[in-house]
Write a structure and sequence with these properties.
mainly alpha; globular
Length: 404
């Protein structure tokens, strides 16, 4: 069962109805329109359905950290021998995330009505990815749901740790750049115009550096608000159009991969997460062809997701995963070689996990090197920009003093 990744982009509807036992139920779902929402609810056996469009979906967000903690708690309860329904009830009482409590209450109701756990989770693709659903399904089929939930929580924690390392590496330079850009805008918008009035009283020709700064200030003051409004409207329109948004994400992702330092860091992070996810699915007994679909979703990177779906088609046609990765040319040779060895020996899940661990170690080294490189570089570059503007502003005053 593959949850459609486009479901979360569809409009949200609130619904009310009665099940086959006459019990009143309500909830939220995503669908393309109200008719499809009603049809989906009827297929679940609901009657007397009322559907209303939610123009503002106020569903609380579920953080990955809360989801992995919930998964680990559920694994501990199942391993202790607590029945599934009772475990879900205990979880709903102990969780603090409001969004997760609402979702798990609906999951509990579906399981109580006779649905399997993976089918109930698949109804909430905005929270439970294909990786999550497939591993739960594999655990239910093999009768080792507690083991699969524990392995799933470990995979979620590793993936979140990788994302956290990237965020922490980029947080400092992003904050410094934001503050510096704000200072530059304030200087150009408020300080330079004051100097312009002084320069006009001189009646002399300004140095070329001062003329450049004055021109930038005029352009920012006159056209800046209009450009900002146009950018906001363009961004809003692109977010409303899913195709435009997907093309924009693809272009941005490809552009960032070409950067000299940031590109290899992103590649290492995504490949490490890719290897961890695929290894977890394969070790859970999911066939390679089926495992590549959820792995593409778990990549959280549009370019690597598209490549992984291409690999899936090649493998479904009888090709080799390692050959497809080698022909792609964007995966590190080390992980390609380990995949080839794993396909030959039948231990691809173990070797992929080892490759992911090596990639994670390499990413730690890259993050440390990037942090030590960016801090002095940003200070020097931004200090140079601000210093150049100040010198350009005071240069006419210096020349005027020399004339007298």
């Amino acid at each position: 069962m593959n949850p459609d990744p486009n479901v979360r982009k569809s409009p949200c509807f609130a619904w009310k109805g009665q099940n086959a036992q006459g019990q009143f139920q309500q909830g939220k779902l995503h669908a393309l329109n109200a008719d499809l929402a009603r049809a989906h609810l009827r297929r679940q056996g609901l009657q007397h359905i009322q559907v209303s469009r939610l123009w503002w979906d106020s569903t609380p967000k579920v953080r990955p950290k809360d989801l992995s903690a919930m998964t680990r708690q559920l694994a501990a309860l199942l391993r202790a021998g607590v029945p599934l329904l009772q475990s879900l009830t205990m979880l709903c009482r102990s969780m603090t995330s409001q969004g997760l409590v609402e979702t798990m209450n609906e999951v509990q109701g579906d399981v109580e009505a006779g649905l399997s756990l993976h089918a109930a989770l698949a109804k909430h693709p905005q929270h439970f990815s294909g990786l999550y659903v497939h591993m739960v399904q594999a655990g239910e089929s093999a009768g080792i749901l507690d083991v699969m939930m524990e392995r799933l929580s470990l995979t979620l924690e590793k993936n979140e740790a990788l994302r956290s390392k990237i965020r922490s590496a980029l947080m400092y330079p992003s904050a410094v750049l934001s503050v510096a850009v704000g200072i530059l805008v304030m200087i150009l918008a408020f300080v330079v115009p004051v100097f312009q009035d002084v320069f006009k009283s001189f009646g002399a020709e300004l140095p070329w550096a001062t003329q450049i700064v004055v021109s930038l200030s005029d352009a920012l003051v006159q056209s800046g608000p209009l450009v900002l409004i146009a950018l906001i409207l363009a961004f809003w329109f692109s977010q409303r159009q899913s195709q435009t948004r997907d093309r924009w994400r693809q272009w941005l992702a490809r552009w960032l991969l070409r950067w000299p330092v940031l590109g290899p860091l992103i590649t290492t992070s995504v490949v490490a997460r890719w290897g961890q996810t695929l290894s977890a699915l394969l070790s859970a007994g999911v066939p390679l062809t089926e495992a590549l679909g959820p792995t593409a979703q778990a990549c959280d990177h549009p370019v690597f997701a598209r490549w992984t779906l291409q690999f899936q088609r090649r493998v479904a046609q009888g090709g080799s995963l390692s050959e497809a990765m080698g022909q792609n040319g964007r995966f590190p040779p080390m992980i390609v070689q380990l995949c080839a060895t794993g396909e030959e020996t039948g231990s691809i899940d173990t070797l992929l996990a080892r490759a992911a661990a090596l990639m994670e170690t390499e990413m730690d080294d890259q993050v440390n090197g990037l942090s030590s490189l960016l801090e002095p570089l940003i200070i020097v570059v931004l200090g140079g920009f601000i210093g150049a503007i100040l010198v350009a502003m005071y240069l006419p005053i210096f020349r005027l003093g020399q004339a007298f």
